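Methods — Computational structure assignment.
A single polypeptide chain was analysed. Its primary sequence is given first, followed by the predicted tertiary structure written as structure tokens.
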Amino acid sequence: MKKDTFVLGIETSCDETAVAIIKNGTEIVTNIVSSQIESHKRFGGVVPEIASRHHVEQVTFVLEEALEQARMTMDDIDCVAVTEGPGLVGALLIGVNAAKALAFAHNKPLVGVHHIAGHIYANRLVEEMRFPLLSLVVSGGHTELVFMKEHGSFQVIGETRDDAAGEAYDKVARTLSLPYPGGPHIDRLAEEGEPNLDLPRSWLEEGSYDFSFSGLKSAVINTLHNAKQKGLTIHPQDLAASFQASVIDVLVTKTVKAVNEYGVEQVLVAGGVAANKGLRAALQEAFESVDAELIIPPLALCTDNAAMIAAAGTVLYEQGKRGRMDMNANPGLDIENF
């Protein structure tokens, strides 16, 4: 009988300090997340130095809580997985060094995980992955379409050329004087409004799966400024609904087009913006007539967490890949070559 595999994951790429333990790559034993949102909210975004300081303060406590909640010790752990990149370099360093110390002290294998690979593998905690598959990654720093032929194989067929979707949400929210993080507030406002404002959709050149949201963000700002100069009133709800409709239209249309071209079995949605109600509803409606299975993780697995890092790390561990004790934070880590 095959022995169960337990991987401990550590995630500190931005403003969440997280530790999780995953069984056999698919089952959450424990998943602890310490959020820093309240600390960064007054600055309107993540302050890297503050994020790093909080990680230093929290990582040991979160690790102890994860093991205690699981009723396990490091003797029960087969491998330590950690986010190696991309992310904020100072924040990444805390997790990488904590993982190296843990692996060295307890003589455990170490694996470095790509943050976006982690987001994709969060879906494996919901449903087993079926290849070939396509993943739509939408987060604060990334908007990508990733094609996978098998475990550990990542081909980026489309990516953002400027602002990521989540970044555009935060910038538009700031323009509307909404608190950080702006995405949930725009999503809530959009439900109350009508998409009655003519905002652009950036399709780029024919056949491209790349994304661009910078022009849309600028159009929102210009719309508000022009209305103010003319003494016109624009309801924030309608502006939020119009902005969100533009973003979702491009994301869903390009995803469906890629599904048809690449003939995939499954489509996985990943990243913090995957928690957006409007996007989830639009994708579910579109895939009623698409011959591929759509998987959207629960809200707790959309935002940064360590369960996704341990899930991706399990695959690397089983493939025999190992990190070394000279592993460093790599904020520019490439998903196709990591």
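Note: The CA atoms of residues 140 and 166 lie 4 Å apart.
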